[in-house]
Amino acid sequence: MMVETDALAECVQKLLWRLRNNLSATVLISGEPGTGKSTLAINMGAMGAYLTGQEWPWKKAIAYDGKQYLSCLQQLPEYSTVILNEAGEDLFNRDWQKKTSKAISRSQQNDRVYRKIKLFIVPYASMIDVNIIRTAHYRMHCSTLGSRRLVEVWEGMPAPMFQKHDKPYYKQIFRGYAFSKLPERMYKEYLHLDIGKKEDMNAKYRKQIES
User: Fold this and answer.
1) How are strands ordered across the β-sheet holding 62-63?
2) pLDDT, greater one: 2 or 179
3) What span, in angstroms and rounded, lies between the C-alpha atoms of 52 and 45?
4) Is residue 204 over pLDDT 80?
5) Is 31 left (phi over 0), alpha (psi -120 to 50) or beta?
6) 3 within 8 A of 12, measured Cβ to Cβ
7) Cα angle at 11 between 183 and 153, to 5 degrees?
């Protein structure tokens, strides 16, 4: 097993290697609210910036719907990280899921153009289309154990050559406390951004209901 700080770096290094070799670098992060999904994702984005020696405008890298997500992919520099965050009540709206899944599918077909690490954050993996789940190189699940946040990491393994039509399977490679808390100032800025975005999303639904 990898030690705490090495676990995050090793995963991000592998994702960057995949980008340099024209492969997808997709991660699905699941877990109940408050278990540190967004913290883990931002830590991974910062690690990617450190390893590539480039700045990462994290506020511009977090999307809350399919349109924002595709915009982030186009605007951010190569080898940076894009985060598709859970969008409040939008997760339970089938129209949102359909549009967002379509945007994700489109981006998966253009990995050689975008060259981005893509992190998808959802409370439950079942909320993302099964075909997208299959394309994730890593699947991570956040939970709490006492006062500490626990993360489990599975790596996608290709199906055996003699079973070409079988689904890829995931092998657990890490289970531990692999990420730290965000700096206080950054955490407050993220909360302000996150709450504002979700309030905007929910305001749209209130208007739809009222009309």
Assistant:
1) 62-63, 81-84, 117-122, 26-30, 138-145, 148-157, 169-176
2) 179
3) 11
4) no
5) left
6) no
7) 90
Q: Which residues contact 39 (CB under 8 A, 6 or more apart)?
A: 149, 179, 181, 182
**pLDDT 10s digits, 161-197:** 555 555 557 888 888 876 677 778 887 887 777 776 7
CA angle, 196 then 92 then 156, to 5°: 95
- Single pTM value for the model: 0.80
The answer to whether residues 72 and 120 touch, using CB atoms and an 8 Å cutoff, is no
pLDDT at residue number 182: 76
Query: Which residues is 84 bridged to in the sheet?
Result: 63, 120
Task: Name the nearest CA neighbour of 79 among 155, 15, 8.
Answer: 15
In this structure, the number of other CB atoms found within 10 A of the CB of residue 168 comes to 12
Amino acid 89: pLDDT: 47
